[in-house]
Amino acid sequence: MQFSRLLGRPDVSTALHHLSRHSRALICFMASAPPPLARRVSPPMATPNPPVRRLPRCPHGYQNMPISTRVKGDRLDKPIQDDRAAQRPRHPVYPLRGLPRSRHRDGSIYRGTERWKERFHLSDRRETRLEPMSLSDPSRTIIHGPRTMLQIFSIELAKIHVEGLVELYGYIAVRDALDPLLNYVINFSRDDPIIVEQGSLIKMGGPKRGMELVDTSIVEYDVRIKTGKQEKDDVQLIDGVTILDDKDTEDCHVFIARISGECGIIDMTVSRLNFAVEATIEVLISEVYSNFYLCVGCFTSGLREETQLFDGVIGKPQNLKRSVVAVRIDTNLDLKLKVGSESFISAEHLCSFIANEYGYVSQEIKTGPALFSVKVTWSTMPPSVDAVMRKVDHSASG
Fold it and tell me: Which structural domain range is residue 125 located in?
């Protein structure tokens, strides 16, 4: 479907014609050098109930791994914070342009009759109805193969117009053709902001389910800096809607999608993955022998970019929040568990799984301070949200 047909309004099409050479292309592929890496916030204190979330500290890096578990090294030569910046891969930067009349703060996103607003249900503020693992059971599955999917590896506060630490809140969400309701990638309330500074990685709590990149998807965002007692006094960082299109992204090509706002820049490291499936990662810590620092990251589809899944101090048995990533079929999903103290990693435990269309795999990992169980559930994306809803209703009635 040509996006110009989707817009339908001549004034909107005219305003957007400069965004790409192609009629469908609404991403501006204007490459520029990545910004220099800024310093990071100090590690969080190991308090039982910290008032705000702090920053991730996992170093980035990748090594080819066999389909097994390995333990690497006894101790890193440098503190975790010093190691990360030097190992982060560098990727081309593609600025994303916001669509006209798509701002939340002035309410323009909810006004007008543009077709893209109707197609993606911009006035509907509900979260996506689809759960992960919807087609993971081979005995009852709807026959549907791998799809073109979007993978977001990380989100960085690349630039702000103030110095030092700030309190950040708001959301970034994806709406795709499968179910155009909000699939949050980050979502922080004003009452529970994160503390960040320029160059900080923003902890991703999503997506809730896999993200399709078939035809056109949109990224919706409203992120602000908390500055005063009332919301009206807060500073707008980014606000609007932008487009991601399967025709103007390349398979397994990692790039930085840059969103510029009034008072700063957010960089999303992303890639399109063809013939991909959804992987839901669950980590159970069943036994804890002593308090320890844990960092869990993953690599998908042979790419060098790491997605951080967890970063914090563990003091008791628990289930970590499940994570959803996209993986190309028949390629590796590589998990890395780093165990140690606040400043140093004492061991890395690496395990790999080959992506399948459905079913699950699991593996137990025993370390000095704890016993882990890792489970990865594979699922293709359904042909439509209605097909899944009918399946759920049929199961409930049966």
Answer: 93-389
Distance of CA 217 to the CA centre of its chain: 15
Q: Strand pairing partners for 273?
A: 149
Q: What is the rounded radius of gyration, in angstroms, for the C-alpha atoms of the chain?
A: 21
- Residue 37 in tokens: 């890496």
Question: In angstroms, rounded to a whole number, what is the distance separating the alpha carbons of residues 239 and 172?
Answer: 10
170 near 196, Cβ under 8 Å? no
Residue 74 has pLDDT above 90, yes or no: no
Residue 394 falls inside a structural domain: no
* pLDDT (mean) for 210-215: 93
Domains: count for the chain: 1
**46 inside domain:** no
CA-based torsion, 391, 393, 395, 398: positive or negative: negative
Q: How many CB atoms lie within 10 A of CB 5?
A: 11
pLDDT at 19 over 80: no
CB-count exposure of residue 69 (10 Å: 0-12, 13-18, 19+): middle
Residue 164 placed within a domain:
yes
Among 46, 208, 181, which Cα is nearest to 124's? 181
Q: How many CB atoms lie within 10 A of CB 142?
A: 14
Q: pLDDT digit string (tens) for 304-363?
A: 999 999 999 999 999 999 999 999 999 999 999 999 976 677 889 999 999 999 999 999
- Interacting residues of 7 by C-beta distance below 8 A, sequence separation 6+: 13, 16, 114, 115, 116
Continuous segment of H or E residues that includes residue 386: helix 385-397
State the DSSP H helix or E strand holding residue 117, giving kind and residue range, or none if neither.
Answer: helix 115-119
> Is the pTM for the entire model greater than 0.90?
no
Buried/exposed code over 184-215 (b: 16+ C-beta within 10 A; e: otherwise): bbbbbeeeebbbbbbbbbbbbebbbbbbbbeb
Most confident segment among 106-110, 131-135, 376-380, 387-391: 376-380
Examine residue 158 and state whether it is found in any structural domain, yes or no: yes
- Residues 75 and 345: beta-carbon distance below 8 Å: yes
Query: How far apart are alpha carbons 331 and 340 in whole angstroms?
Result: 29
Q: Which two tokens stand for residue 191?
A: 């009452």
pLDDT per residue as tens digits for the range 230-285:
998 999 999 999 999 888 788 999 999 999 998 999 999 999 999 999 999 999 99
What's the CA gap between 119 and 174, in Å, rounded?
A: 14
Amino acid at 364: E
